[in-house]
Amino acid sequence: MHLADFSPPLGEYMNDKQTLHVLLVEDSRTYAMPVKEFIEDKGHRVTHSRSGEDAVQCYLEELPDVILMGVIMQGIGGIEATRLIRQIKTDRWVSIIMMTSLEGTESLIEGLEAGADEYLIKPIRFDVLDARIRALQRIARVQHSLQDVKQQLVQTEKMASIGQLAAGIAHEINNPIGFVYSNIGSLERYLSSVFQMLDTYEQISATMADEHQLAQLASLRKELDIEFLKEDIPNLITESKDGISRVKNIVQDLKDFSHVDDSLDFKLADLHKGIDSTLNIVSNEIKYKAEIIKEYGVLPEVECVAAHLNQVFMNLAINAAHAIGETRGKITIRTGRSKDKVWITFSDTGCGIPNDIRSKVFDPFFTTKPIGKGTGLGLSLSYGIIQKHHGTIEIESEVGKGTTFHISLPIRQTGPNNTAGNTQ
Ligand SMILES: Nc1ncnc2c1ncn2[C@@H]1O[C@H](COP(=O)(O)OP(=O)(O)OP(=O)(O)O)[C@@H](O)[C@H]1O
Ligand SMILES: [Mg+2]
Fold first, then answer.
1. How far is the CA of 259 from the centre of ligand 2 (A)?
2. Is pLDDT above 70 for 244?
3. By the 8 A CB rule, do 298 and 331 touch?
4. What is the mean pLDDT of residues 343-347?
5. 302 has a pLDDT exceeding 50
6. Candidate of 369, 393, 405 to mutate for ligand 1, largest count of ligand atoms within 8 Å of Cβ
7. What distance in Å separates the CA atoms of residue 379 and residue 367, rounded to the nearest whole number?
8. What residues have CB less than 8 Å from 121, skipping those under 6 apart?
């Protein structure tokens, strides 16, 4: 299969859970072992728990997909454990199956009311168990993709409200920064006139003033440290101008992120060229940290604002390099086409992104880098740019192994106003 035909739809391989994690709660080892072995033989993972208390603890720590719950155990029984597990607030789906003997129909009803989804009659028939597990796999797949959609919706909504906030801040900061910048420019010119005048006074006073006056001038000059001022004022002005330029850039980034200036010029462009030239620009930052591997597919020209997409590629490449530690790593860039879309992935062998910060990395100013190394705007900007292109950017990451950023972009921008944002 040619690479170009291979589109890795992120959602799919995250959801395609072939392997289930089963928590088997049963105090009789003789009874539990054959069930455990049978499930493991089917390629699933089983954790065995021998009491209700242990089951609740295991559930919290391991978040299994399925719990096979015995009813009568020492300590809290299966029904109480089911009730406790169902009280735990989590986004994760878990299916609880009670295992009970035929005589235990009462406890079966109680179990279902406590939150179990189904039941299996003991002694368990392995063909029934097998069919149940396969049915659960199908449900798990649907549940996981629902979870993904939900996360995406929350993310899109969050980014939209952060976008509004960013636009507001950018607008408010833009005006004062504008006049401070222009005032500093005027101040620089005025001060240069004042110094010029001062120099002339000095020259003339040397010939016209008497000794006493000259001594007075010299003492004042020393007291006020005029020589130092002449040296330092231009430095202060240059530094202030630099500082304000930086603020201006940040404001511009915020505006780009929040689609304030939406007068974009979409043109057909070769994305590979864009990626290559961007990599050339950042090669100094990358070459000592990682080897770059390109696995390009065949791409058509894409309707885009090439300069903006290059900014995205640059952010992803630099982030990837930063994520790679002391040992030299790899950054792999893959591209391909899938129907009316193209996809680009940037994978690194870096530190990975822990789950708890994954939903924050697109937020403006979110950074884990030391002060001065990152402003935390790279990914939020990239997110805004990809949105403007009506595409998507998603993350797949494993701590300690690496991260992949998946970008999907439409080949053509459709609709009367192809610069409109927020259609994800
Ligand atoms: N490839 C990656 N691997 C691991 N963590 C990453 C990766 N890319 C981004 N991150 C995490 O996401 C955070 C935000 O990234 P983002 O590019 O927005 O900001 P930054 O790189 O910290 O600063 P800036 O890009 O503004 O210089 C990073 O600080 C880092 O913690
Ligand atoms: Mg960055």
1. 19
2. yes
3. no
4. 98
5. yes
6. 369
7. 10
8. 100, 101, 102
Residue partners of 305: CB distance under 8 A and separation at least 6:
264, 265, 266, 267, 385, 388, 389
> Which ranges of 209-336 does DSSP label H, i.e. alpha helix?
211-224, 226-257, 271-286, 306-323
Task: Report, at the CATH architecture level, how domain 267-410 is classified.
Answer: 2-Layer Sandwich (3.30)
What residue owns the CA closest to ligand 1's atom 5? 353
Side-chain-side CA neighbours of 416 within 13 Å: the count stands at 0
Percent of the chain with pLDDT over 90: 55
| Residues in the ligand 1 pocket, defined by CB under 6 Å | 315, 319-320, 323, 348, 350-351, 353, 361, 366-369, 374-380, 403
Atom of ligand 1 nearest to the CA of 376: 19
To test the pocket of ligand 1, the residue of 162, 246, 314, 319 to mutate (highest count of ligand atoms within 8 Å of its CB) is 319
> 135-185 pLDDT, tens per residue?
988 888 888 778 778 777 777 777 777 878 888 888 888 889 989 999 999
Q: What is the DSSP letter of 75?
A: S
Determine which helix (DSSP H) or strand (DSSP E) holds 15, and give its type and residue range. helix 10-15
pLDDT in tens, 192-235: 999 999 999 988 988 887 888 889 888 999 999 999 999 999 99
The alpha carbon of 351 and the centre of ligand 2 are apart by a number of angstroms equal to 14
Fold of 3-124: Rossmann fold (3.40.50)
Phi, psi of 22 (to 5 degrees): -110, 130
Between 87 and 75, the more confident residue is 87
**Cis peptide leading into 123, omega within 30 of 0?**
yes
Instruction: Name residue, tokens 């089911």.
Output: 82
At position 127, the amino acid (one-letter code) is: D
Say how many Å lie between the CA of residue 399 and the centre of ligand 2: 18
Going by alpha carbons, the residue nearest to atom 19 of ligand 1 is 376
Determine the Cα–Cα distance for residues 203 and 195; give it in Å rounded to an integer.
12
Residues of the chain with pLDDT > 70, as a percent, come to 92
Q: And the tokens for 49?
A: 């728990």
Residue 350 CA to residue 290 CA, distance in Å, equals: 10
Please give the Cα distance from 90 to 166 (Å, whole number).
Answer: 31
* Cβ neighbours of residue 278 closer than 8 Å, sequence gap 6 or more: 310, 313, 314, 317
**CA nearest neighbour of 172 among 258, 239, 240:** 258
